[in-house]
Write a structure and sequence with these properties.
Three copies of one chain form a homotrimer. Chain A is an alpha+beta fold. In chain A, 27% of the residues lie in helices and 46% in strands. The longest helix of chain A has 32 residues. The interface between A and C is large, with 43 and 46 residues. Strand 6 of chain A pairs antiparallel with strand 7 of chain C.
């Protein structure tokens, strides 16, 4: 290959790597919110570290990280973690760093609370046997708000669909107008 | 082309296809929220199927799908549908599947309600005459919450900008501090 | 290069340009929400124009734009601006347009308000000395809601983490269940 081809090959590889890392992050968050612990474990290196709560909770190693999430995220809770704005740098042939913006929501009807916030992740990824894995994930919060939820009959929200309790189906019917 | 070139061409094509499919989804959701029904129809195959409400509402064929949305989404409502975390697989030269995470909000001031939730889409796309189209879209809800909105003078939100009623302009003025 | 190579080189360049423009937007919004005014200035052309509030506020030139944001966004406020659904077109070798969907939140505990909304951006980007910069940014709001926040002891949200006040650390501890 000549120099132009070499540069093109490098650029193409970088685009493929960025896609693979982004998809890893999307899979990890889907596994958190849908409680897919085995699939989540497969997103992590054996020595993966995680920092939650903006740094107040630190876990070391895949088993500790998954064990913490499994305990902190029962299906009694609803959670929604959405990451945005990837700023990913390949810092070596098998290593990358990633900054992401997070929006998250936790709803715990047993405790009668919601927690909503935003954060910036600083992640590290490594490529092991051809597959990108999360080697570190952690974030610092832009903000986090705790709200005590009134009961639905006192102005609080009513849960009209739930992944586990209603198999994701809504009890609402839209009002349709005639064109 | 030699083998390296063939692989590179394949990888580049895949990246282009993923971009095209993502953009199709973004256009579809923009058309939903801005009520652009003709442009929305052009995102769908003639036989497109759609499942809304986490499976409670099923429509078959482009006309039925667009007709349902047109009736369920008058401009009296505000809606915001945002999809994230694409996990798209090309499963054939002209067919792809897509998993997406959805966050959505509906505000109906006439009924005095808001509906907020999250979901996972399972979509199918096909390429027709060189253009990717949605052949099936549907989702299962992670959660959905219905809230009865108090009037603004009773602690409820005040609408300070609206796409149709204020041409998208805000009535708020920021308080500026002097550096 | 033959025709196939030329097309491939063009497609690859387009993918790289789209990535660079997306990353520029992500950096700009991170700089807004984290109040990184010098880094934000480096995202703008000298003559950059910005339209905020759905068109009610217009600023011309990098210094005016940064000056406005600096005054309107003290660290007393929490802000979260997240953009989604990029529909970017390269309209020349060094010029592009971008449509984005925005979700944003402002929380001002001094005034006791939150402002939440959604919008569509219509941006213009230019490439100067090999670097993409924002030459115009502006949006039209889908909706914007102002809510007067009750105090936390009257049912309002309690701030449990804050980028500047708690260094992004949360004061909440999850309730862990035993598997």
């Amino acid at each position: 290959m000549d120099d132009t081809d070499t540069t093109a090959a490098h650029d193409l590889l970088e685009l493929l790597e960025l896609r693979a890392i982004e998809r890893l992050k999307y899979r990890y968050l889907r596994c958190v919110d849908l409680r897919l612990w085995d699939e989540l474990a497969a997103c992590l290196t054996a020595g993966a570290t995680a920092s939650y709560g903006g740094g107040t909770i630190v876990r070391t190693g895949r088993d500790e990280v998954v064990g913490f999430l499994r305990g902190a995220m029962p299906t009694r809770l609803i959670s929604s973690h959405k990451c945005h704005h990837p700023e990913i740098d390949l810092v070596g042939p098998a290593e990358a760093t990633g900054v992401w913006a997070l929006d998250d929501v936790i709803i715990d009807r047993t405790l009668g609370i919601s927690v909503r916030g935003a954060a910036y992740y600083d992640d590290r990824y490594v490529k092991v046997d051809g597959t990108w894995l999360i080697d570190h994930t952690g974030y610092k919060r832009v903000y986090e708000e705790l709200t005590l939820l009134p009961a639905a009959d006192a102005g609080g929200p009513a849960m009209t669909a739930h992944w586990w309790e209603t198999d994701g189906r809504s009890s609402l019917t839209p009002t349709e107008t005639t064109p």
